Amino acid sequence: MEENGSGRPRPLLPRPPHLRGITRPQGLSGARPPDTITVNSQRTDAVTDPQIVCPNCHTEIKLTESLAAPLIAETRRKFDQQLTAKEEDFGRREALLKQAREEIAKAREAVDEQVAAKLKAERANIAEAEAKRARLAVADELSTRD
Predict the structure, then answer these.
(1) Which residue ranges are recorded for the region named Disordered (predicted)?
(2) What is d(CA 96, CA 84) in angstroms, rounded to the nearest whole number?
(3) Each residue of 38-54: pLDDT tens digit?
(4) pTM here?
(5) Which of 23, 30, 89, 134 is deepest in the core (most CB within 10 A)?
(6) Beta strands of the chain (E only): which ranges?
């Protein structure tokens, strides 16, 4: 271990290999060491500027704003059309669901009314049958007393 200027020991590590596109910091003189790799400005332009390839001649064409604007506008128009179509489709589906819910609610009300009417009729039938049975029982009891 070596000692750096602060008095703390510094481990001895191998220096990392130079990486492509990365330069060492320059000293006060501004002179670059001979092993410094300079960054190619074309390389960074290729990363930031989108390119398209011609399907016929396979030439790479940089897309500047003036070239890309019609493509972007066309793409935006297509997406807006798709969005509008989806929204209309969702609106139709929502209307169908609302209509189905209303029909189900009406059907439930109709079933509830039918059940209530049948229940009322059955209660009336049961009350009439019980009244007849009670009259017969009273008549039977009166006939046995006599």
Answers:
(1) 1-44
(2) 18
(3) 544 455 544 566 788 88
(4) 0.41
(5) 23
(6) 2-3, 9-10, 51-53, 60-62
